[in-house]
Structures are given as structure tokens and as C-alpha cells.
């Protein structure tokens, strides 16, 4: 899967993350750990290896309105005078083929989802479409997602026997 650099149009920055910068993973995992535990999404090592193999993409949402030099490792960014932004959320996506090609929001963690979810979907949908996907989808791992998914035009579906949601493009 190709790594992207995207800016989130809301009150912060949306970046796909280069895993060569291990500090990015160390900051993202605490945000994703609860979702991974709740959904049997894997251990920290399993999720990290999935990302390293290119079988999933890691995205981050930051509080800063300024662009972050995402092509630089964290230490080089700090030396270059880049602003220190607090990571608000982390999301992993996977391209799946269950009947038709889709973009699964695999693990989602962080805060203030309602503030950035629409902008995130607006960035991820064209990225997923460019990879041949017809929809984004995810499992219904908790009640709060049902409300959020309805706000963004998602519909309930069953995928592999699990309650899930889907939003077609």
C-alpha cells in the first residue's frame, strides 16, 4: 500500500505516517490499543508488523493548524523548528476484498472524533477510490459508532457474521 501525505482540512492536520519514524508508532499505539483490545485487532507487535508489511495504512490527526514536515523523522522535524503538535487520534485502514473491494477502518482511537471524522472520510474516500474501492466500512465495536456512522451516511450491514457499517461512494 502506498504511503500518503494528506492534510486534514479541519482544525488540525491529517497525515499518513511513515513507520521509519518509530516515535510515530510509539505515540500512535496508546491511542489504538483500546480499539485493538476491544475488537481482537491484535497485539502491538502484530499491528505494527501488519503496517510494516504494507497490509494496512496508519493515519494521524494532529491538533496543530500548521503543516508538519511529515517527510522528516521526529528528531529532524524538531531540529528544523517544526511545531510540536499533540496527536489527537490515530486510524488504521486496510484495503479488503469481501464481495467487492472496500477500505476498512480497522482500528480507530483518540479523542473528539465528531470534530474530525467528516474531514477524515473526505480524505480517505478519494484515496480508497483511487485503489479501486467502492466503500469504506468498519465493525460496530461499540454503541457510539452507530450514532457517528449514521451522521456520515453509513448503513448497518453484516460482514463475516459481525455487525458492521458501510458507506458507499
CATH top level?
Answer: Alpha Beta
Q: Which percent range describes the beta-strand content? A: 25-35%
Low-confidence stretches: 1-12, 65-79
Termini Cα gap: 20 Å
**CATH overall fold name:** Aminopeptidase
Strand order of the largest sheet: 1-2-3-4-5-7-6
Rounded to an integer, what's the Rg over CA atoms? 15 Å
Structure summary, number of beta strands? 7
Q: Give the name of the CATH superfamily.
A: Gcn5-related N-acetyltransferase (GNAT)
Question: How are helices and strands ordered from N to C?
Answer: EHHEHEEHEHEE
Shape: globular
State the share of residues found in helices, binned by percent.
25-40%
Q: Give the biggest sheet.
A: 7 strands, mixed
CATH architecture: 3-Layer(aba) Sandwich
Count of the separate structural domains: 1
Mean pLDDT across the residues is 76
Number of helices: 5
Provide a compact summary of the structure.
With 169 residues, the protein is of the alpha+beta class. Helix content is 34%, strand content 30%. The longest helix is centred in the first third of the chain and has 17 residues, at 22-38.
Can you describe this structure?
The structure is a single chain. With 169 residues, the protein is of the alpha+beta class. It has helices spanning 22-38, 44-52, 74-79, 113-129, 143-151, and strands at 13-16, 57-62, 87-98, 100-110, 135-139, 155-159, 162-168. Helix 4 (113-129) links the parallel strand 4 and strand 5 (135-139). The longest helix has 17 residues, at 22-38. Residues 1-12 and 65-79 have low confidence and may be disordered.
